[in-house]
Design brief:
Blueprint (H helix, E strand, L loop, with lengths): L11 E3 L6 E3 L23 H8 L8 E10 L2 E8 L5 E7 L10 H10 L10 E6 L6 E6 L3 E2 H7 L6 H20 L2 E2 L8 E3 L5 E3 L6 E2 L19 H4 L8 H16 L9 H12 L29 H4 L5 H10 L10 H5 L22 H4 L4 H4 L2 H7 L2
Antiparallel strand pairs: 1-2, 3-4, 4-5, 5-7, 6-7, 8-10, 9-12, 10-11
Helix pairs in contact: 4-6, 6-9
């Protein structure tokens, strides 16, 4: 029998929501910096307990907020200056107003995942800082001057094909890194792709991201913004793999090439119909297990025997069409992986991808934004970003 834990090593915290104190269980005293955290450990912890795991946190008062640059489901984002270093950063306030049991699980997932991720094409979480009281938490992120959704709405001329290839290659490299680390992003879209003035593209917003293992455990199908949602999600699968991210990459690539969203559905039924119009009607022959998906019986699919990608992109090379078709395979098991895409001949033929540092620079629309894009931007921008 082991020795009892010395009294001096016990950690007792004052409860924020009720009177009294509580002792932090030993199994909760893990270090986030070591990137060994399971989100489930923190499921019911208050913010104060959570911050204890992080060690000493700086105050948000050490940052000068310059302007608001966005607002999502999980928090408000500001452009800010670190007064200690003069570095410009993105300061994301964790939304706590609806939480009764501590830090939102979405934010815990984002923090614990980002603390262990380091890749040039993944947004960097630098540190976590606190506000005036322990229930106010901010994430300090690396700052990017642009997001692709705003660029697409405001740029005078579309991206060239060489520039599209440059962007998508970077997305694929970041995604390959995520998938190799058993992480599914689950919300890839142009508004979650950021770009620096040096042409570096970074995937952001990991509020819906999940680590997965083998065997894959069931997850809710209500993920991924509608326009980028894979058909297996629309048809109710609870088994999610990295293939749902790859479908979204196909939508992003097509959107950049066509200069407009490829599948802008107004409802789940409309979204399924747009997919069938583009790719043809799915069947057991091309998608084994299709007829057993939970929501198949709720849709009356039109009979459409043809794949119309070539008619949609008549100017695209055979290699480009082949890549799109691999990304839009109905059967998730046959869909291209990030590694497959990186080896595609499409990126090796002319026009070759331009180098990131040769990407054009654009006016800093985010720096001038005083209100959320969803309230002041166009309807297209708003709907592109909605789940």
């Amino acid at each position: 029998m082991g020795e009892p834990e010395p009294e001096s090593e016990q950690i007792r915290l004052k409860c924020i929501r009720k009177e009294g104190f509580f002792t932090v269980p030993p199994e909760h005293r893990v270090r986030l910096g070591a990137a060994q955290v399971s989100v489930s450990v923190f499921g019911s912890l208050t913010a104060s307990t959570f911050l204890l795991q992080l060690g000493r946190c700086r105050s948000v008062k050490e940052f000068e907020k310059l302007n608001r640059i966005g607002e999502g489901t999980y928090g408000i984002v500001y452009r800010a200056r670190d007064t200690q270093t003069d570095e410009i950063v993105a300061l994301k306030k964790v939304r706590m107003d609806k939480e009764k049991d501590g830090v939102p699980i979405s934010s815990l997932r984002e923090i614990t995942l980002l603390l262990r991720l380091r890749h040039p094409n993944i947004v960097e979480l630098k540190e976590v800082v606190v506000g005036n009281h322990l229930e106010s938490i901010f994430l300090v992120m690396g700052y990017c001057e642009q997001d692709l959704a705003s660029l697409l709405e405001n740029m005078p001329t579309p991206f060239s094909e060489a520039q599209v290839k440059c962007i998508v290659l970077q997305v694929l490299r970041g995604l390959q890194y995520l998938h190799q680390n058993f992480i599914i992003h689950r919300d890839l879209k142009v508004s979650n792709l950021l770009m620096t003035d040096k042409g570096c593209v970074k995937t952001a917003d990991f509020g819906l991201a999940r680590a997965y293992g083998i065997p894959v455990k069931p997850m809710t199908p209500k993920v991924v913004t509608l326009w980028y949602r894979a058909p297996e999600l629309l048809l109710g699968t609870t088994t999610q793999t990295t293939s749902i991210d790859m479908w979204a990459v196909g939508c992003i690539l097509a959107e950049l090439l066509a200069h407009k969203p490829l599948l802008p559905g107004t409802s789940e039924i409309h979204q399924v119909d747009l997919i069938v119009q583009l790719l043809g009607t799915p069947s057991e022959n091309i998608w084994p297990g299709f007829s057993q998906l939970p929501l198949v019986g709720q849709y009356s699919l039109r009979k459409q025997p043809y794949n119309n990608l070539k008619h949609k992109f008549p100017w695209l090379s055979e290699a480009g069409l082949r890549l799109l078709n691999l990304l839009f395979m109905y059967d998730p098991k046959k869909r291209a992986t990030a590694g497959d895409c990186l080896e595609s001949s499409y990126f090796k033929e002319k026009p070759l991808p331009c180098e990131p540092e040769l990407m054009p620079t654009f006016p800093h629309h985010r720096n001038k934004r005083a209100a959320p894009a969803t309230s002041s931007g166009t309807e297209s921008q708003s709907r592109r970003c909605k789940p």
